[in-house]
Amino acid sequence: MVTAVVIGAGIAGLLTAKALEDRFDRVIVVERDRLPLDAEYRSGVPQGRHAHGLLLRGAQIMEDFFPGLRSELVDAGAQLMDAGHAQVLTPHGWAAQGETGLPMLSVSRPFLETAIRHRVSAEFVDGANVVGFRFDGSTVDGVRVRARDSSAEEVIEASLVVMAAGRTAKLAEWLRAAGVEVPEPVSVDSRTGYATRLYSLPHNDEVAIGQLISAPVQRRGCSATRIEGGKLLVTLQGADGDHPSNDPDEFMAFARSLDVGLAEVLSDLEPVTPIYLYARTASSMRAYEKVSEWPAGLIAVGDAVATLNPLYGQGMTVAALEAELLRSHTDFSSEGVKAFQAALAKIVAGPFGMSAGADAQWSPDFKPGLMNKVMDRWQVALTRDVDMVRRFLSVVHLQAPPTSLLRPSALWKLRSAKVSA
Ligand SMILES: Cc1cc2nc3c(=O)[nH]c(=O)nc-3n(C[C@H](O)[C@H](O)[C@H](O)COP(=O)(O)OP(=O)(O)OC[C@H]3O[C@@H](n4cnc5c(N)ncnc54)[C@H](O)[C@@H]3O)c2cc1C
Hints:
Number of domains: 3
Low-confidence stretches: none
Helix content: 25-40%
Number of strands: 21
Strand content: 15-25%
Distance between the termini: 67 Å
CATH topology of the largest domain: FAD/NAD(P)-binding domain
Shape: globular
CATH superfamily of the largest domain: FAD/NAD(P)-binding domain
CATH class of the largest domain: Alpha Beta
Bound molecules: flavin-adenine dinucleotide
Structural class: alpha+beta
């Protein structure tokens, strides 16, 4: 019996389990939380309270993995709207609105995760904390597991172990404990804080309001979208240490300080939850693909390899791209797992470069380069032309490469998009 064990039932773990299910006799997902039947918040995913925008590329891959997922979510109350209908305030004014043909799905993270989990046919061992790898020489051949309510440890043997335990994963520590040298992480921290509250919506109209944070000029932003259950998910965001608060009066004062009209919208609505905070938002990655003694029998995916500033909404989509890579990867020999990590690093590099590149502008020593000037012009162009909005969103949503922003037809339109001082 050939078994794969996946550590963590977050988005990366679930998509991994799906990618492996036809290739292994058994796929076992070990999750430290007790997994609820319904879409409920769980403490192993503290970010689950906050806005979780699903990029178009991620939504496409998930639909490919789970045909019918999108309609299931929409039938259950998720909002699906043309991305060009959103009311978005850039530092240069309102983004142009109109049809882009880009369908944007809006759901809470627990709702999406639960819908996916019900479509994964792996075995779930929940309420079980993985406390380390088991090694046979330099090969990982299982995981050591401790049930939440017991101090006894048991081993689940596997021919492949997938580390998908998210941003608190102890991958580097466990490798170092086994004598494997691990590089230090590369991090860029925009010191962004989130504060999120749900409100009850008395109607079913489309709602998607956003104010974009933009270094180094715009430290405050927000996102407010309708999600399942007739709720408005409101997340206030503050970069460069300018964090929103969980005090209701200060939360509203922060909302009023925005120019997007959010406070006016909220003043008519009933809050249905307390305000939740989150501030561990740095983009950070380790070059695991360069670890020469990387153990056979092990791969790592998702936030366990690289975390991305959530402002750019890339994490779940990167996890989906990695699962897509895994689905076509067939060689799990000691060289094969290294090749997988190398290919995964290439997937992460683009989104990491986009978010860390933008966030680096918060540093007082930052000197803008040509690309920063081009991006400024793009932000102006967004306020004028819905076709430019469509092209820009295709890149942001990881459907088109960043180089497409430099195509001659785009540059031609950017000529007149000067940034006023
Ligand atoms: C505030 C915030 C907002 C975000 N917003 C967005 C967004 O808008 N769009 C987007 O695409 N992404 C967003 N992300 C990122 C997104 O949450 C992740 O990138 C994505 O879920 C993939 O994460 P993952 O599956 O690797 O880890 P997680 O989703 O964190 O899941 C890890 C799982 O592993 C389990 N686990 C951990 N340790 C163990 C262990 N030892 N044993 C067993 N189980 C364990 C945890 O309980 C958890 O279930 C956001 C992140 C944050 C912090």
